[in-house]
Amino acid sequence: MSENQTIEYKSLRKVKSGDAGFKDLASTCVCFANSQGGTIIIGWEDKNEVPPEDQVIPVQIINDTITRLRSLCFNVSLTASVLKTHENGGQYFEIVVFPSLMSIATTSDGKIYLRTGDQCLPAHSEDIHRLANEKEAYQWELIPSKSLRIKDANQVEIERFVSDIRNSVKVSEYIKNKTDEEILEYYNLADNGFLTNLGVLWLGSPKQRTRLSYPLTVQYIVYDNNEAKVRKEVWHDNLFNPKELILDIERKATELAYFHELPRGMFRESIRLFSEKVVRELIINAIAHKFFTISGDIFIEVYPDRMEITNPGGLPMGITKSNILHQRHRRNPHLINILHDLNLMEGEGSGYDMIYEVNSRLGKNFPEIVSDFNSTKVIQEAKIIDEESFFLLSFVTTHFQLKQKEI
Known about the structure:
Blueprint: E1 7-10, H1 19-33, E2 38-42, H2 59-72, E3 73-74, E4 77-80, E5 84-85, E6 91-98, E7 106-107, E8 113-116, E9 119-122, H3 125-140, E10 144-149, H4 155-166, H5 173-176, H6 180-186, E11 190-191, E12 194-196, H7 197-203, H8 206-210, E13 218-223, E14 229-235, H9 242-252, E15 259-264, E16 267-272, H10 276-288, E17 298-302, E18 306-312, H11 333-341, H12 351-362, E19 368-371, E20 375-381, H13 387-399
Parallel strand pairs: 1-2, 13-17
Antiparallel strand pairs: 2-6, 3-7, 4-6, 5-6, 8-9, 10-12, 11-12, 13-14, 15-16, 17-18, 18-20, 19-20
Helix pairs in contact: 1-2, 10-12
């Protein structure tokens, strides 16, 4: 039993305890609706891994619960599952809350809640304007094109995408056995035969991608010691889908592969200025969390002592530079799902854990995050803080098995 961004467990007592229990459930419905939706599983006691063995739930309780919650929530769409029976014999049911894509969800008394990690928190006044803007970003991926059908897409891109999915170690056999069109619809690239915005981004031609309001564009700029530009690469022609774009950036960003040479006895050890894993994760994060409803390029700026990656849009709601290791929130969940299933990025919420681990192993500073309403910048320094500490940690991790947090 594990709660997360989209799942919450509640005791059956919640629907039997009157107004207090229903108000708590209503706040959970609102916070799910203001995020990417979620599921409330009712009938699981907080301290148990399974429902009580002798638990029997009358169908009328399910109907009354949905009716009551609909009266306590505004701009919230929800439905209940049929009664379910756990393998131990105990009964439970699920309430599915759909994301409120066009409006802000509230409780009947006007309160607004947000989902941050596995918690529902009340929105502060400064959150409400951001939430209104985030709503448009949440729905961007799923908006279908009114003129572009699957047959109008780049068929080579479709074949390549489907092949990549079927060959991925992160995709279940259930998904791999779907038809090509079913795979496209499963990943929200198509809806009833039409491409979605996400589908155009992945499967469209350059001309079709150009029709997106704010397509994926990147600038790579290199500076010298005087911070004068010495080289620039630009991806403004929409030739690539996100995967192809990531690989092309890595091919052309040669400065990111430069390295230090550290003396080690009679030999010298080469350490990259920026770890390959860290570079990829930071670039993918910039793409995955880009605000596709506001104008702006992703900037990758390389200086002799640091790398700065800036993408349009602030950090997702509820995420700050101080809680980024512990909280989970996705701006473009379906894009992130594809990047994960194609084995391009770490699992949800584990990317920064990996970055911290790699930087610890290399004796480097953790990335610094600078975020405001319009943009998010990540600054990664190139220097090794202390060479002796680097060699010590290298020795320890070679001879002892350490957990990620221990490193």
